[in-house]
Design a protein that fits this description.
This protein is an alpha/beta fold. It is elongated. The protein has 13 helices and 12 strands. It has helices at 4-11, 15-23, 30-42, 49-56, 72-87, 101-113, 129-136, 160-174, 189-204, 219-230, 247-259, 277-281, 293-308, and strands at 61-66, 91-96, 118-121, 141-144, 154-158, 179-183, 210-213, 241-244, 269-274, 287-290, 316-318, 321-323.
């Protein structure tokens, strides 16, 4: 097996210098660092995580617990977080729970076994008992996008309730009075908060909204939800606007409307939430409430790094922005 002595010999450097490069500690000149890294690559060397942890007391690993990776929001978040951790000399252990409590518990056991230095978590579960095990072990946690219920964890989030109000307010300002809300997953706390915000703002205007939420957050399921609403009653009864609790829900609604030979936004307006890249790619381009997804990832890593260094940090709530595009207009 390749050792750091082999790397030192090939790079023409001391064993201590190679150790500093591997462990991202101490000063090493750029030229020497380049020679050592070339030697590491040439010898296909992988340092022993266990040995490094015993020497330094740090695993240099961070658990990233996400409910899904096939949902664009979490896929982008995982990419941003992984890159930010890498820049800080940390490795990301991506744990996709598939919204399963049992799977989440197994991953947390794995993270404890690996003695991770910290955890970033976007959990969709209502019970945070498993995360208490990490707290009890002294592992710092930062909740991303939503709080961990019953757990005094630090967090980087957006105000989803206000986001729901923003969606409703925009449609009201255009003159819409028949407005429905569709989306998924129904058990997601951010989705519930957006629905609550939208419904409350509509109630203040003397309006009631039809709300249809599904369990599966995918394009086909959301399109079916929209088709169900648009097929009800006559043209005079049909909503003139749909609020999608996510961009995926809104894009599904656009396809449902077009499939029923309705024009967007002439016959029906559609608004979403997130501002995923797909919001700009779809035709017509989607009006949406943007949350700063990449900034959420950047700040979450920065906050966790500060906690790992023993610093005090404050929870962060990042601002939302209305992105006006082509899917909303005054009703006919």
């Amino acid at each position: 097996m390749t050792s750091i002595r082999d790397i030192a010999k090939l790079a023409g450097a001391s064993v201590a210098t190679v150790s500093r490069v591997i462990n991202h500690s101490g000063y090493v000149s750029a030229a020497t660092r380049a020679r050592v890294e070339q030697a590491i690559a040439a010898l296909d060397f992988t340092p022993s995580a266990n040995a490094r942890r015993m020497r330094s007391g740090s695993s240099k690993m961070v658990g990233v617990v996400l409910p899904a990776l096939d949902v664009p929001f979490f896929g982008i978040l995982a990419h941003v977080v992984e890159q930010e951790l890498f820049q800080r000399g940390l490795q990301a252990l991506i744990c996709c729970t598939d919204e399963s409590a049992a799977q989440e518990a197994r991953y947390i056991s794995m993270l404890l076994a690996h003695k991770v230095d910290g955890v970033l978590a976007a959990s969709v579960l209502e019970d945070s008992t498993q995360y208490q095990r990490l707290v009890d072990a002294g592992v710092p946690i930062v909740a991303i996008d939503r709080a961990l219920p019953g757990l005094a964890a630090h967090s980087v989030t957006a105000d989803h309730f206000t986001g729901g109000r923003m969606m409703a307010e925009h449609l009201l300002s255009l003159g819409h009075r028949r407005i429905a809300v569709i989306g998924a997953p129904s058990h997601s706390t951010p989705v519930q908060a957006r629905v609550q915000g939208a419904v409350e703002r509509l109630a203040e205007a003397g309006l009631s909204a039809q709300v249809v939420l599904g369990g599966a957050h995918d394009f086909d399921s959301c399109r079916s939800l929209a088709e169900r609403i648009l097929a009800q009653g006559t043209a005079e009864d049909r909503p003139t606007a749909l609020i999608g609790t996510t961009d995926i829900a809104a894009i599904g609604a656009i396809h449902a409307a077009i499939g029923m030979e309705l024009s967007v936004p002439d016959d029906i307006s559609v608004i979403g939430f997130d501002d995923l890249p797909e919001a700009r790619y779809v035709l017509p381009a989607l009006t949406t409430v943007a949350q700063p997804l990449r900034e959420i990832g950047v700040q979450a890593v920065a906050q966790l790094s500060a906690l790992m260094a023993g610093e005090l940090v404050e929870p962060a709530e990042l601002p939302l922005r209305l992105m006006l595009r082509d899917t909303t207009a005054p009703p006919r």
